[in-house]
Design goal:
Elements: E1 2-5, H1 7-24, E2 31-36, H2 40-49, E3 55-64, E4 70-77, E5 87-95, H3 99-109, E6 115-123, E7 136-140, E8 146-147, E9 163-165
Parallel strand pairs: 2-3, 2-5, 5-6, 6-7
Antiparallel strand pairs: 1-9, 3-4, 8-9
The structure holds inosinic acid and magnesium ion (MG).
Residues 35, 38, 63-64, 70, 92-101, 145-147, 151 line the site of inosinic acid.
Length: 171
Amino acid sequence: MKILLTEVQIAEKVRHLAARLSEDYREKNPLLIGCLKGCVVFLADLMRAITVPHSIDFVRTSTYGMGQTSTGAVRADLFDVNVRGRHVVIVEDIVDTGLTLGYLTEALTKQEPRSLKVCALLVKPGANRASVTIDYKGFDLPGDFVVGYGLDWGERYRDLPYVAVVDEQDA
Ligand code: IMP
Ligand code: MG
């Protein structure tokens, strides 16, 4: 396993993103919507670094099965999320093809939020192809499949405090 982003690098970036959000959403009581399950570690750190009142909620999205390649099919479970009239920030762990984000953005837009922005910790090159805007971006990554800091490979490695590239030995 090769470490791509250390705990320290991630923590610094999270502080930076939280500072921007705190500035932009002063007195707007934003609703941060995390995409389960990958977002849990990022969202937990991000919300504690944000210094203005806000609330959180969750949706469940999935494209990947157990492997490393996207099936292209997006599934989304919005639970009972209601964003009408709210300032919404979608919080994603990683954007690859952008399909998940596109699908989710469309679904939430139908509920007529007051505003809708996206915060993603990691962005892969493929995201450029899809027409999604990432308003708050952590790191640009190469195309490799990564794990850790919430990201899994067949439900493994979410607990790693850093982001790493997996190789055959990790299977
Ligand atoms: P997209 O729809 O192709 O943008 O895929 C986004 C989702 O795929 C993310 O929320 C992740 O759950 C998963 N994903 C994409 N790339 C990776 C990766 O490198 N490691 C782990 N999960 C990934
Ligand atoms: Mg996954």
